[in-house]
Amino acid sequence: MFEAVFYQLPKSVSFHQAVKGRPREAFGRIREMLASMAVSVQLGHSIALNVDPPSEWTDAAVAAACLDEARRRFGLERNPGESGKSWQLGIECFEDAVEFALSDERWPRQTVGPLSLHVSYHFDWRDFSNEFPEPLASWERGTCTLGLNFHRRALSVGPSLIFPVPYESAAFQPFLDRLTAALPFEIKHKHLRRMLVNPKNGAIRYLHLA
Length: 210
Prior knowledge:
With 210 residues, the chain is α+β, with helices and mostly antiparallel strands. The protein is built from four helices and ten strands, in the order E-E-H-E-E-H-E-H-E-E-E-H-E-E. Strands 1, 2, 3, 4, 5, 6, 7, 8, 9 and 10 form a ten-stranded antiparallel sheet that branches.
């Protein structure tokens, strides 16, 4: 039986949590963590950008300025006939898209919008073996995912992390302490689970920690 520790937030919070500090600094800390502690880092297949239409919560001038800037950077939206505009961008647009999301501080803060951006990282851990049983071995984009959602001058994260050692392993807690110090968000112990993978049939079970 292959045993690991699994971390994911519950559906009750939409699998996301807010970061500490300003989005630009928090994003920088996440990239530093990936550079020092992760391997096989890849971006998700697509980058989702949305610009909200004017409404009682979004000023018309701000929405129009944001839309003009998005079109200038990324071309026409994929849904011109709809009020809310959206783009599915390739990974070559990643840096520009993130900078666009981070620079929304140029506009007055809105109750809703005007823009949101979702990107994700996929990776494995540098300090642990990356030899996994099926079905984990067939996960082409790493066993860990970190989704980033930029919205309303804020950044929230959706972590789905596999630590491929038993919870009682002497290596786990020191690694978790290092990771917690590096991240701009809290790893909440109550959301850690045992992950058991049957190497014979690939069945996965998740158990609460005793």
